[in-house]
Amino acid sequence: MQFIDLAAQYAAHKPAIDARIQAVLDEGQYIMGPQVGELEEELASYVGVRHAIGCANGTDALHLALMALSVGPGDAVFTTPFTFFATAEVISLVGATPVFVDIEPETYNIDAAALDEAASRTSRRTGLRLKAVIPVDIFGLPANYEALEQVAGSHGLVIIEDAAQGFGGKIGDRRAGSFGQVATTSFFPAKPLGCYGDGGALFTNDDGLAALLRSLRIHGKGLDKYDNIRIGLNSRLDTLQAAILLEKLKAFPRELEQRQRVAERYALRLADAVTIPRTPTGYLSSWAQYTIGVPLGRRDSLVRGLERQGIPSAIYYATPLHLQTAFKNLGHQRGSFPNAEAAADSVLSLPMHPYLNCADIDSIAGALRKAIKETSCAS
Ligand SMILES: *Cc1c(COP(=O)(O)O)cnc(C)c1O
User: Fold this and answer.
1) What's the gap in Å between 101 CA and the centre of ligand 1?
2) pTM (predicted TM-score)
């Protein structure tokens, strides 16, 4: 049993993926080959935005977004402490100050009311300029953009959607990647749409921002690549990765449906035993992770119980960002963001990928129920 079965996906699409890779080798345009632009068009149309801009990875995508919006020293950028490190790392990297905002306990996404309070407090008590907020579509579920747009608007905050996990998700008819002034995603192999190495993209409807991002990802190039008009990064998406993604994007809509079916069957088998993920009405998760909540203090023994039965699991994220060593300087402690801390103490992610069949899901659920029974006897 695999936590994420990339081999099964490759096996299902091997001839087509191999042909795409071979075509790049035959053409030899390894950097910014035609597949990059082709993929960008496909991505923009899938997400429903004017522009998609490929880049080297999801972290760079966030970094480029902050650079394009001229975020820097003296700026406050709000984000959730319950995310992968990169979301907040890039804020510090450009010299701005990450301001953490607690999450909703049920969706694990940033809490719009808490953002409102944090923005008011920051403008009263610090000299920081209120600049942006980076909501994360955690585990694949889009954040509450309707509420966030209102709060961000009232404080003059730009929204940067971190859709590294959310690609494919929806609120109503709007796809993840279309929220905010600019959105980012990652094609790290284990993400809902992954390549065979590092890759990322940005999405925007803003023509000016798109042009700026296209410059910034290639050393701040002007019209000619040896005419550098600003300081940028070397952050192109490899042609080979774009070619692989073109094929994987074709399979993606069906894979997304399969993920949804996996999630539904997990819910059916586990709802009475653990806290299953909550998807608000009108929302579609891309199920980057299937993350359950387990009783406090029981998680380690459940992980071991699953392991003994050959079932892998993972903990995203055991340490909320405000308690990470690298952010010590921000002066937070345990108790600063109670919902994020409670989540960090109780979440457990189960195997999730489109190639799990009903028997797999039933055996994972059965193994979990057995592990629960065993740990309750032991305690
Ligand atoms: C994976 C991830 C990133 C970073 O993407 P990379 O491609 O690994 O750089 C950023 N934010 C979130 C929420 C992620 O899950």
Assistant:
1) 19
2) 0.98
